[in-house]
Design goal:
CATH architecture of the largest domain: 3-Layer(aba) Sandwich
Helix content: 40-55%
CATH topology of the largest domain: D-Maltodextrin-Binding Protein, domain 2
Structural class: alpha/beta
Radius of gyration: 24 Å
Largest sheet: 10 strands, mixed
Number of domains: 2
Length: 268
């Protein structure tokens, strides 16, 4: 009987080891797919990621969200990513010049535009662009390297040529800026929390979770700036096929529906 028990014990041990080996193998089969995306894409990537994972069992999408300039710097300093989704073509072009992105993969997939955002209760009673120059209005902006700040500067330059605005408006606007955030998501959050009376962000930054906390004020088309969003596969990526499939999802009808839900316009 001892021999029988020994055989049973040995058999159970092998079964347990086999099960454990199978579990480890299952874990190692998971493949990480890393996306570096502009902070203004928080909502988009939050929806697209699970869709992509569902279509690719075993793939885990990891998204690093920050300002496009910060992400560009991280990539140049050696951070690994498969796909780059900046908010400015300039950041992508900078990587192309360094040979760090695949030029043939670069794809335009969406456009975005600037908007004035104010807290839902609009304490400064802002109704249009001109109100941003009123004394005492607290404006939150972004640091100089953030794409939305660069687009804001382009917008201000347009107002310089207008008889309705001009240098006086630009000077008063700048005087009202109380803080400069390192990415557009932080600027949006400050407005949502009531820590500022207004901000210039992308139209898309009023995401679902902020819709009841923020009100959008339109910027006239003659002064607004349209930003083009591109996707590009990084040269060092070991998942180039997956990266292309992610781009394909962004440009598909399903992807376009997600873009439109977050106030982006599909590129085509």
């Amino acid at each position: 009987m001892k021999t029988a028990y020994s055989c049973i014990t040995l058999g159970l041990t092998f079964l347990l080891l086999f099960a454990m080996t199978g579990a480890v193998a299952a874990e190692t089969q998971e493949k990480e797919f890393i996306v570096f995306a502009a902070a203004s894409l928080t909502g988009i990537t939050g929806d697209i990621g699970p869709m992509f994972e569902e279509a690719h069992p075993g793939v885990v999408v990891i998204t690093n969200l920050d300002s496009s300039a910060t992400l560009e710097t991280q990539i140049k300093e050696g951070a690994y990513a498969d796909l780059f989704l900046p908010a400015s073509t300039k950041n992508m072009n900078n990587l192309l010049e360094e040979g760090m992105a695949d030029e043939e993969s670069v794809t335009e997939y969406a456009t975005n535009k600037l908007a004035i955002i104010v807290p839902a209760d609009n304490p400064a009673s802002i109704t249009g662009l001109a109100d941003l120059a009123k004394p005492g209005v607290r404006i939150v902006s972004e640091t100089a390297e953030v794409p939305v700040r660069k687009y804001t500067e382009q917008m201000l330059n347009k107002t310089l040529e207008s008889g309705d605005y001009g240098q006086e408006f630009v000077d008063a606007f700048r005087a009202n800026v109380i803080s400069e955030e390192t990415n557009v998501a932080s600027a949006t959050a400050k407005v949502a929390l009531g820590e500022a009376d207004a901000g210039i962000t992308y139209y898309s930054d009023v995401t679902k979770d902020l819709a009841d906390k923020i009100k959008i004020i339109e910027i006239p088309d003659e002064f607004n700036i349209v930003a083009t969003y591109v996707a590009g596969i990084l040269t060092e990526s070991t998942n180039k096929e997956l990266a292309q499939e992610y781009i394909n999802l962004l440009t598909s009808e399903e992807g376009k529906a997600v873009l439109e839900e977050y106030n982006f316009a599909p590129a085509n």
